[in-house]
Amino acid sequence: MKNFFLNRQIRRIEREANDDFLQILSFGARCYPTRELHQLLIELDRKSQLYLHYRRLLFLLGATATLWIALCFVFQNLKFGIGIYFTLIMIPLSILAFTAGSIYINHRFRSARNAHRIEGIIVEELERRKKDASIF
Predict the structure, then answer these.
(1) How far apart are alpha carbons 105 and 54 in whole angstroms?
(2) What's the start-to-end Cα distance of the chain, in Å?
């Protein structure tokens, strides 16, 4: 059991050590070459666009709860029992799916949530290097 917790902790440390964006947030961008910084900016833009796309889909999924509530009222007026029970089951399921999806997306795209800060750090480092190169 001790090895399980130790191995899990080691895997978490390795995963965080391999995350370039987390490294930039923690220590800055000085140790990265210029070409890699440009590639990281492109990758950060791609990840933040993907994060925003998934968030939009999750909000649509969460908004379906209001649709299920409205359909429940319609089914009650029509005295359609199966539809009433179906919509009453779907309301908490859509809210649960929205909550679980939000937690998963926020965990998976941790660096995309801090995209503006990371982009600022990288751009600042690139500007500093550009000024240093123009001196010579």
Answers:
(1) 7
(2) 59
- Give φ, ψ of 31 to 5 degrees: -85, 0
Band (135; pLDDT cuts 50, 70, 90): low
* Mean pLDDT score, 102-116: 88
Both tokens assigned to 75: 């089914």
Instruction: Name the pTM for this structure.
Output: 0.77
Residue 107: phi, psi to the nearest 5? -75, -40
Tell me the two tokens of residue 48.
Answer: 């933040």
In total, the chain counts a number of residues equal to 136
Alpha helices in the chain (DSSP H): 2-17, 20-27, 34-78, 81-108, 110-113, 115-135
- Residues 19 and 112: beta-carbon distance below 8 Å: no
Cα–Cα distance for residue pair 91/103, rounded to 1 Å:
19
**How far, CA to CA in Å, does 76 sit from each of 4, 65, 80, 112, 126?**
52, 17, 6, 44, 62
Higher-pLDDT residue of 125, 1: 125
Q: Which residues lie below 8 Å from residue 50, measured CB to CB, with a gap of 6+? A: 109, 112
